[in-house]
Amino acid sequence: MNLVTVRKSEDGLTIRTSKNPLYGFVVMEQQGAFTVSPSGWVDEKCPTCLIQGTMEILKRMEDKLNAGLVGKIVHKESLEPFNLKNPAQDIKYAGKTKIACSVKGKPIYRVSTFTADVNAVDELIAHDNGKQISEANQNGKAVESLQALKAEPVTA
């Protein structure tokens, strides 16, 4: 059974308050997830996502959330931003390099969501800036690509 569980705050809270006290969110995680590369190497993953809502609804759901939800966390990637008001929020980065993954210079945007459909699959886009990412990993420092990508206008 695929069980997605709550990642409690450092204070032990299930529901966290947003900037507006009428709204909140819960951080969910899927422990025990893994991927296998085409060359056969396994890598453990612990994907996370947010479940957002009014504090009233989230408080009513708190016991169910704490018990865990049957389903999975899926990732959707796009070359178009999901959030037009703050497109930089969903840019996909390569590990700890702070390099934005891109295709032909356009950033890849990524969101993670919970779904009750245990057969749902990730929608991923392969990046083409692997050389830049490899160089950053080899040098142990990030190349400042983020500001260049953020500076480009986004048309909707």
Sum up the structure in keywords:
single chain; 156 residues; alpha+beta; 5-stranded antiparallel sheet; two-stranded antiparallel sheet; 19% helix
Task: Count the DSSP helices.
Answer: 3
Order of helices and strands: EEEEEEHEEEEEEEHH
| Beta-strand segment tally | 13
Runs with pLDDT <50, length 5+? none
Shape: globular
The chain-level mean pLDDT equals: 87
Question: How would you characterize the largest beta sheet?
Answer: 5 strands, antiparallel
Strand content: 25-35%
Q: Note the gap between the termini.
A: 40 Å
Helical coverage, percent range: 10-25%
The Rg value, from CA coordinates, equals 18 Å
- The SS-based structural class is alpha+beta
Count of separate structural domains:
2
Describe the 3D structure.
With 156 residues, the chain is an alpha+beta fold. It folds into two domains: 1-70, no CATH class; 78-110 and 125-156, no CATH class. Helices cover 19% and strands 33% of the residues. The chain is built from three helices and 13 strands; from the N terminus they run E-E-E-E-E-E-H-E-E-E-E-E-E-E-H-H. The protein has helices at 55-67, 130-139, 146-151; strands spanning 3-6, 16-17, 23-29, 33-36, 42-45, 48-54, 69-70, 72-78, 93-94, 99-100, 102-103, 106-107, 109-115. The strands form five sheets. Strands 1, 2, 3, 6 and 7 form a five-stranded antiparallel beta sheet that branches. Strands 4-5 form a two-stranded antiparallel sheet. A hairpin with a 4-residue loop joins strand 9 and strand 10 (99-100).
